[in-house]
Amino acid sequence: MSIFKSYNNKDPLVVYTVQHSLRQTDVQKRLDEVTLKHKRSAMLGAPEVLQLNANLMQVIGAKKVLDVGVFTGASSLSAALALPADGEVHALDISEEYTNIGKPFWEEAGVAKKIHLHIAPAGETLQRFINEGQVGAFDFAFIDADKVGYDNYYECCLKLIRPGGIIAFDNTLWDGNVINPEDQSADTVALRKLNAKLKDDQRINISFLNFGDGLTLCFKK
Ligand code: CA
């Protein structure tokens, strides 16, 4: 099953929880299958993480979502399916090549009109939204892009999200490397620094879940 390959998680209890909760449409399953054959398939968001995000979007009545880091579009598709008919997913990525893989699936699922793709460095797009006066206009942000950029994306999203909105970070355990002191690579150092900062950030309430590859949920006060 695809999901277990995506993070190579063989923990039988993790497998059990996913087997007993994952609900994907046929289109979502097929997009995951196509993505897992891609050379950079490790970038696919774990479907159980996307499902939790989608559930959170629905309970907070989200209408406008930021998807920072699209890759082949599974996260945008999941968000668009969770939003009402007038919902908007603003999908930010630098790669036209990867996001093009997702587009036919967005169409097939009937949600393409909800997904607004912005091909540019995410920091530039987020800053543009701030400059355009969209502060507080968004309900939910999923940050799953380059790890060194996470802190900048966080500060921008914190402005763009309304009070009571949620910012979710993927990969905050980074395959366990955050607790490996020998790993001083730029990505790991950036994630460690962000995790330490979020712990005491009084602008948010926080839950750090050992789920997928680590999912940190920030609830804006
Ligand atoms: Ca990810």
Bound molecules: calcium ion
Number of helices: 9
Give the biggest sheet.
Answer: 7 strands, mixed
Compute the CA-based radius of gyration. Answer: 16 Å
Shape: globular
CATH superfamily: Vaccinia Virus protein VP39
Query: What is the helix fraction of residues, given as a range?
Result: 40-55%
CATH class: Alpha Beta
Strand content: 15-25%
Low-confidence stretches: 1-6
- The tally of beta strands, per DSSP, is 7
Strand order of the largest sheet: 3-2-1-4-5-7-6
CATH third-tier fold name: Rossmann fold
Quickly count the domains: 1
Find the structural class using helix and strand composition. Answer: alpha/beta
Concise structural overview:
The chain has helices at 2-7, 12-19, 26-36, 47-59, 74-82, 96-108, 122-131, 150-160, 186-199; strands at 64-68, 88-93, 115-119, 138-143, 161-170, 204-209, 215-220. It has 221 residues and is α/β, with parallel strands linked by helices. The chain has a single domain (12-220), classed as Vaccinia Virus protein VP39 (Rossmann fold), CATH 3.40.50.150.
Q: What does this entry look like structurally?
A:
There is one protein chain. The chain is α/β, with parallel strands linked by helices and 221 residues long. The protein has one domain (12-220): Rossmann fold. Helix content is 43%, strand content 20%. The chain contains nine helices and seven strands; from the N terminus they run H-H-H-H-E-H-E-H-E-H-E-H-E-H-E-E. The chain has helices spanning 2-7, 12-19, 26-36, 47-59, 74-82, 96-108, 122-131, 150-160, 186-199; strands at residues 64-68, 88-93, 115-119, 138-143, 161-170, 204-209, 215-220. A seven-stranded mixed β-sheet has the order 3-2-1-4-5-7-6, sandwiched between helices. Helix 4 (47-59) runs parallel beside helix 5 and helix 7 (122-131) packs parallel to helix 8 (150-160). The model is unreliable at 1-6 (pLDDT under 50). Bound molecules: calcium ion. Residues 45, 144, 170-171 line the site of calcium ion. Calcium ion binds at residues 45, 144, 170-171.
